[in-house]
Amino acid sequence: MAGILQRMTWILSTVIIVAAACIILYVTSGADGKSANTPPGSLPAIEVDAVLQQTRQKKGYEQYRSGTDQATQPNVDITIEAADYIKAEGEDVRKLTNYEGMDGVSLHTGETGQVDWTINVPETGLYNLSATYYPVEGKSSAIERALYIDGELPFAEAAYLQFDRVWANEKDVVEQDNQGNDLRPRQVEQPRWMEETFQDSDGYEQTPFKFYLEKGEHTLTLKSSREPMVIRSIRLFNEKTAVPYAETAGAQQSDSSGQPKDVLIRIEGEAAIAKSSPTLYPTSERSSSAVSPYSASQVRINTIGGFNWRLPGQWIEWEVDVPESGLYHIGFTGQQNFVKGIYSTRKLTIDGEVPFAEMAKAPFRYQSDYRIDVMGGKEAYKFHLDKGKHMLRLENSLGDFASLIRNVEDSLYNLNSMYRRILMITGTKPDEFRDYRVEKQIPNLLEVFSGESKRLKDVAAQLRLLSGQSSDQEALIKTMALQLDEMIDKPDTIPRRLAAYKTNTGGLGTWVQQAREQPLEIDALYVTSIDQDIPGTGMGPLAKLGHEAKIFYHSFFIDYNQIGNVATSEDQRTVTVWIGSGRDQANTMKAMIDKTFTPDSGINVNLKLVNMGTLLPATLSGEGPDVAMQIGNDLPVNFAMRNSAVDLTQFSDYSTVEQEFRESAIVPYAYDSGVYALPETQTFNMLFYRKDVLEELGLEVPQNWEDVEALLAILSKNHMEFGMPVVTQANMQGVNIPPNSQYATMLLQNGGAFYRNDDKESDLDSRIGIETFKQWTEFYTDYKLEREYDFANRFRTGQMPIGLTDYTMYNQLSVFAPEIRGLWGFVPVPGTVQADGTLNRDVPGGGSAVMMLESAKDQDAAWEFMKWWTSTPIQAEFGREMEGLMGAAARYPTANIKALDSLPWPAEDYANLKAQFETVKGIPEVPGGYFTGRHLFNAFYKTVVGQVEARESIMDYTQYIQDEIRVKRNEFGLP
Questions:
Q1: Long-range contact list for 349-355, CB < 8 A, 24+ apart?
Q2: What digits encode the pLDDT tens for the residues 482-497?
Q3: Judging by DSSP bridges, how do beta strands 824-827 and 194-197 pair with one another?
């Protein structure tokens, strides 16, 4: 009986294993499919009626071209020498002779200023414009210029012309750490002369801009927005249109005789010789055996692109040496498991030209694993290549999705505009028993809703046509269209549907942002003779099973928590560093440490990603780190008063290091004549405003608080809001609440301070402190301002067209709200008029720091690490890396003065930012100071919500602060 049971158990186990293997084989069997079928031909244009065009205030390229469709495109080619300018503004404009191998005289232009040229157009018509330029050293970001014709911006997109830099691997050979793992190659600039045709930097226009010029003399102006560049010439011409594949020699030649044979050229993706961004670095892929080089146990640099290669206009180039002239197939092994429901699109160029029209939008469809993409799919395209070296470039393009995304973005702008107008009548909390008759009071409201509903339905239909199936990409668009239809059918329900309407428009905005991102990861590029197939090495189901088995085996022996070089017994100097941010930041930082710090200093760093809430208990138990990074402003002094942090002023070169930061950044870490941390980041408030909404209301940007009060009355009348910094509790129990930034701003501008008598007492009960508290709370009691809100969403819709918030909001809005690009700005905060008539715009600063623990065994090594980390080149590199990895929304707010200067801010916006930075003040941390923010919050709510007189509230709670400061000073034996 036992034998029978044993056999049955063995048979059942075998059946289960076989069934599991069959399932895996079935699921993975599609990996060998060859993709890159050409998508459908040109989609029908989505018609937009006149009402919607009028609602859209932005004068874009589409509207510009609508009146010039019938214009001719003359066969003209005129070159303007850059040195023959008629007028130049800016200090950095100068002529250069025979610059970097370019014969003749070139013109250097800085990141500010403008240059004018004249051109005589021989015939009225549409023309392309291009510039031959050299990207001189700047802040490592793309160069940006605005084009004016006869003193006017022809259309909105002409204000954002982009000129790429060129990046490459610093070394040809991939280096390894002491564990045998490949290190990511460092990216360096390799500038070269290039010709760039003026085109849409957002990627919505698939062909370069056409400018309508009448016969006669015109003035062309290039105004600098960001980064310097050298210009050799500007060219007026008409670009040749790529012919369809069917008209090429390759398509028409069916006989393969006389063509190259047995040619199979494989170029590793990571061997790209140039790319448009330093973030397009070679990467490591460990989830598949299909990549080369492959290792199941060690890190190998074997792909390029991935999520970093997601934005329109980004390109990567490879060099191919063809052995003989003839027809070839071109293909890639890659992975596109990022975008589902739509597909990633790339433009393929060979030696700078699109070989035929289909290659302007080559599709890479979704699949969960690596596969072979042959250009043309089953009926592979034949590319004619001459013998010798050729440059193949893949450029990120929105392809067929460009017009769909632009239509949704325009629709979003219109719907937000209507939301704002409804809000002016109903307010944010409409009376559900009142009939507002908004459809009668707002001109064209239902017409706009009807037009946008039709437009969104058309977009959803075309999305389905492109993807070949229904997907989640169209669900949100259909939901918005359905709600608009319901509002049209029952206009009286519009006010009570506002909350859902706002939610759906917010979802549309997220869709626009995500749809513009089309990543693609490339393992290898193939150029083969037409008799050869691309091998699918490592792509079969058995290879996948083998890969999983190897990964499982090695998991018993590899410590996946260790990143980069690991200290060995022979390594005498090691620093343990804790970081409390995210894994992306930690991985980037460790790569930089292994690449520059350890090789240069000989000091190993064990970097650990931890929850900083464990720092104090770990330190008390003797298990803490040597250095703690990205900690709050309150921790260094709290550790210092307990003799747990190192006074950095004891190091001989501290005074030199201190010069890299503003004095205000050091203030929170100073205690008892010592300094116990170095600043990493420093942030402060700026005033954000919607240009279009303020113009609608006839308002100017306020310069002082009296202006703000006058503006509040008009905003209130229109049911709009002014955003004061939020007044909120800590998001976690036990976390310190810093003093409210708005109260701190007004206190500093009024000449007040938080502490007096050498920081031994709170000064909130002084005359200035009390009057400032009263002024602050009156904004909420008299004008009923919101205490907590989502600024980004309200700013986007126009419900809150102006507000004070952290300057890093700029980065979020740049990515989060593309539909209002160019329609908002930020400036220094309103100031307080002084007795001498000047305006005081002081603001408090916040941020994070890096601190050395007293328990550090090698304090000199820890100090070397801290100096390296906060230095200008490392902070600038880290900022650039994080922006590339996580997008412009992650622009790093470094406290290092020169590093901040080197980050890629538009010149005009950075001028405003820098003006405010000059007035930032630090708020000192004192024993018991954690009660200041907490009881300031309590006093605020007692006055605003409890309706207690402001003076009484602040006096009562200041007493609690005084008592706590006294108790703590006695506890630590301070006078």
A1: 349/392, 349/393, 349/395, 350/383, 350/385, 350/390, 350/391, 350/392, 350/393, 351/390, 351/391, 352/391, 352/393, 353/242, 354/242, 355/242, 355/248, 355/383, 355/384
A2: 999 999 999 999 998 9
A3: unpaired
Q: Where are the beta strands (DSSP E) in 717-845?
A: 722-723, 755-756, 761-762, 802-806, 824-827, 832-833, 839-840, 843-844
Residues 426/438, Cβ–Cβ less than 8 Å: yes
State which amino acid sits at residue 681: T
Structure tokens at 256: 């393969």
Residue 35's pLDDT is: 44
DSSP SS3 for 804: strand
Strands 761-762 vs 832-833: parallel, antiparallel or unpaired? unpaired
- DSSP letters of 618-662? HHHTT---SEEEEEETTHHHHHHTTT-B--GGGSTTHHHHHTTB-
pLDDT digits (tens, 9 = 90+) for 591-620: 889 888 988 898 989 888 888 888 888 888
Q: What does the alpha-carbon distance between residue 972 and residue 967 come to, in Å, rounded to a whole number?
A: 9
What whole-number distance in Å separates Cα of residue 514 and Cα of residue 443?
33
Instruction: Find out whether the peptide bond into 293 is cis, omega within 30 degrees of 0.
Output: yes
What does DSSP say about strands 674-675 and 670-671: parallel, antiparallel, or unpaired? Answer: antiparallel
Amino acid letter for position 403: S
Q: What is the per-residue pLDDT across 306-325, written as a single tens digit (0 to 9) for each?
A: 988 999 999 999 999 999 99
Q: Any idea which of 613-622, 638-647, 727-736, 830-839 has the lowest mean pLDDT?
A: 727-736
Instruction: Provide the residue type at 614 as one letter.
Output: T
Angle separating helix axes 930-944 and 767-781, nearest 10 degrees: 50
Roughly how many angstroms between the first and final C-alpha of the chain, as a whole number?
88
DSSP string, 301-343: EEEEEETTS-STT-EEEEEEEESSSEEEEEEEEEE--S--SS-
- DSSP label at residue 127: E
Residues in the chain: 975
